[in-house]
Amino acid sequence: MTAPAATLAPGRLLAGLAGLAFLAFALSLAVGPSGFGFGPPGEAGSLIFWEIRLPRALLGALVGATLGLAGAALQGYLRNPLAEPSLIGISGGAALGAVLAIHLGITQALALALPLGGLLGACIAMLAVVALAGLHGGPITLILAGLAVSATTTALISLALNLSRNPFASIEMVYWMMGSLADRSLTQAWLSGPLMLIGMGLLLLLGRALDALSLGEDAAVSLGIDARRTRLTLVAGTALSVGAATAVTGIIGFVGLLVPHALRALTGHRPGLLLPASLFGGAILVLLADVALRLVEPWADLRIGVLTALFGAPFFIWLVLKTRRELAP
Amino acid sequence: MKLEARGLRVHLQRREVLKGVDLAAAAGELTAVIGANGAGKTTLLRTLSGLLPFSAGEARLDQRPLRAWPRAELARCLAYLPQERTVHWGLSARAVVALGRLPHQTLGQGETAADRAAIEAAIAAMDIDALIARPVLELSGGERARVLLARALAQEPQVLVADEPVAGLDPAHQLALFHHLRVFAASGRSVLIALHDLALAARFCHKIVLLKAGAALTSGPPAEVLTREHLASAYAIRAEYRTIDGIATVLSRDGLP
Amino acid sequence: MAEPPQRIVSLDLCTDQLLIELAPPERIAAVTHLAGDASVSAIPDRAKGIPITHGAAEDVLSYDPDLVLAGPFGVSATVALLRRLQRNVVTVPLPQDLEGVRTAIGSVAAAIGEAQRGEAMLNAFDHRLASLSRRLDSASPSALVYQVAGVVSAAGSLADAALAAAGFRNLARDYPLRRNGQVPLELLVASPPDLLVLSSASNAYQTPAADNLRHPALRTLRRTHASLELPWQLWLCGTPHIADAIAELAAARDRIKVAPR
Q1: Which residues of B touch A216 (CB under 8 A)?
Q2: CATH architecture, domain A67-327
Q3: Whole-angstrom Cα distance, residue C108 to residue C104?
Q4: In chain A, which residues have their Cβ closer than 8 Å to the Cβ of C207?
Q5: Contact in structure between C44 and C234 (CB atoms under 8 Å)
Q6: Does residue A329 carry a pLDDT above 60?
Q7: Domain C133-255, second-level architecture
Q8: Does domain C8-94 have CATH number 3.40.50.2300?
Q9: Higher per-residue pLDDT: A203 or C176
Q10: Using 50, 70 and 90 to split pLDDT, how confident is the model at A269?
Q11: DSSP-derived pairing of the beta strands B56-61 and B3-12
């Protein structure tokens, strides 16, 4: 008696995805407006590679990994295929936290306040969504609650920018609502990277719990899962990673929706294995999307948030229709 | 291991659902909890599995208070099979059975040889070898029930607690499943189930606890519990325990006004 | 000769500044709040004490103006309303070059009935420009005005004219600009200008939109290449103060040794 042959062995799947992620990372380093390759020769080239291309690729990988992993974790825990950080308001909360940290002047005293503000905002948004939807509502209820929280955070961000004495408020609004990886610096990578990694580490611990939760909460607890600790780990991990990521790139949506769905069949539908798979998958998606953006740059001025929404939104609509059909009597 | 309760009181949302229940599920025996809808069967099973807190009374597993059992250790000794046969994702049957090994695994560790052995033994015991590669969501009710029971068996528990394990199954599957439960109990484990079907309870269970409105009306061997008076009181029906062709059963006549 | 307007309201930062410098204070009824804002106005102190209007028609009418000066942006609905109510509204377009600045000075001076003062301002402006003018040819050093969000001053803008007057080639012509006028930082680093002109100090604005001014690559570039912080108050509007900007640029020009190409 052997394991079903349809799915890849976990080790091979993850190794394959990690390899692809590495390739995507290398590709991201080689693409840019000053030409293909690792920068022009000389000092300018070195500056371009280390200070412009490397931070962009690094943040692309980290943020993509974060969003993919957070999406998989949320879907696994909530047993809801529609869950995703931006759709249920977590990214919006993170952006609001970051905006307040900047415009209340806190980031001038402490640079770390930026990702911490994102963390706090993400945490509060998550608690708000759970308070509105409850943990046992249907999938559509959760999305509605997320919509309410997103609308609220968007309005508050707009208000905060309006009240700040800053002539670039409208540019900044676009910055937050449609995220971008352009012209990021290593400073931002150092600032948010560690927090993203800690958050991701926490989320990766949820594998066993998510597998057990496939059978429902009672069965999971009887299999030895600590429900409270699982919930806390999920909230902390998501707030840390998504909060820090959104604080330095703005809201990049739908990655956490697309990646788990694309990889679910390859992992045999096991939520635990989907976690690391989505981590690599998310990095691959964001890095490749960012490469595509830079290739079409002369003709179109797109931000990565726009690109992920262009593909993610129709997919989301299709998913909603599919879910409704499955839930309909 | 013996699973027992004494004077167990449980509140759910400010309502007292269990009002002092006594129960003992001994090793080697198949014990059934029966009663009308809303009598508290599921609540009793959940409480004895460590899923619900109780406000008064005692619950013990293997002479130790249930509260004193660390969650991880409890999971290795007691397997709980909920009434809802939910499986949220399109897992294969084998993957579902493998979930039963979680209490014996540590984080990051894959399947050990011991795990594989337990899984394969459970699959063999439940006769689902032909189904292992298929997604559980595509299986019929009877097949899914067997897969989920196999999951519980893979846990290699000393105590198996199952809430309505045969509800909605056709007669052949019901009989087969009960046969498996008897075999499991015979190997020295305790089995505690909640049950609606009085005939099955009469035929297969060593001991029956009859719940009425949150309290145990009576308990003991089937012949003692399933009397006309008890059944009339608990279910408002006219029924009685009979033995036909050497097989114990309950003959239900009609409801009482 | 008709009496010049006695209650003048200005609805635009640029006309604000021209009005304040050309008209006697008793004839100015109101200017915008931007005139006193040091981050955008070249003469914030001179706006002190002048009443402020935020541009709504009702507010403007409360001053009972006999002349309203408006710029090309923002208040078109208000301007249309005021015209329908038979108020005298003069629109002054934003100058795109130095000749446009002279036209703007002339228009405002004529509208407010201060032809003489306008003439004097023009003469002083021309005089100063003549002394500052530097030669511009293909061997001239290059410069780029790099603003918040990576936007650069393209050809045909007032800043472009200022660069040219100070003897710089505007390097914006050589970059493939994005639709919104931005230049990717990578291109800037790959082929930097001889003079990098920044419109604000790097920490002047605490907003992610201004992160590009604080980028480490830009800091390194500024260490190895000439750069100049030229506050945009000086060249945001078409006022004679653009000569101050040209003066600083000319001084920078003199300091640069052109690299052999």
Answers
A1: 82, 84, 86, 88
A2: Orthogonal Bundle (1.10)
A3: 6
A4: 102-103, 164, 166, 168-169, 171-172
A5: no
A6: no
A7: 3-Layer(aba) Sandwich (3.40)
A8: no
A9: A203
A10: very high
A11: antiparallel
